[in-house]
Design goal:
single chain, 182 residues
């Protein structure tokens, strides 16, 4: 599978900003628009990752967190920030091998939110706001997957025929990759 490009990210920004603006013009509630755009983007990321493990769990976790925030918070800003963190978490888990690139992506997510706020304050256009947000998000592909030399991925260790043992080792490998500081 080819890796994601900036041009593909810009295409997603166009699609999502048009979808968000169209949903807003149909008087769909703001939280539902935010959730729909976030879910669409998370699904896009999951479809484009090379990793195959945990996709259903990510969607279930996203749905549970989204429902909990919707029930327990009246703030659209809180809802928006939680969705932003969920997007970041998916990218951190599926696209990076280490803490530093994941933190760089968190900074990019903050920059995307800042660009969206700037667009809203200057244009009062939901289309421009969503466009700016996802346009900056498209730059995540420029963050290196890891910042050090070739590390032992541990993939050769996963040879057990027992499914549970294999799943356990894959989970340990994922945690090890995520917590490595490069």
């Amino acid at each position: 599978m080819k890796s994601i490009t900036v041009a593909e990210g810009i295409g997603m920004a166009v699609v999502l900003s048009l979808a968000g603006a169209a949903a807003f013009s149909l008087f769909i509630p703001t939280n539902l628009i935010i959730a729909g755009l976030a879910l669409g983007y998370v699904c896009y990321l999951l479809l484009r990752t090379k990793e195959r493990i945990g996709r259903v769990s990510v969607i279930v976790l996203w749905a549970a967190v989204t429902a909990a925030v919707h029930i327990f918070s009246d703030s659209a800003m809180t809802f928006l920030l939680i969705q932003l963190l969920m997007i970041w978490l998916v990218r951190a888990l599926y696209f990076y091998h280490g803490v530093i690139p994941a933190l760089m992506d968190l900074g990019l997510s903050g920059l995307a939110m800042s660009a969206a706020v700037w667009a809203w304050l200057n244009t009062h256009s939901l289309l421009a706001t969503i466009w700016c947000f996802f346009l900056v998000q498209a730059l995540f592909v420029l963050i290196p997957k890891k910042l050090a030399g070739k590390a032992n991925t541990g993939e050769a260790e996963i040879v057990s025929a027992d499914r549970f043992d294999r799943a356990h080792k894959v989970a340990e490998l994922a945690v090890r990759k995520l917590t490595q500081i490069h």
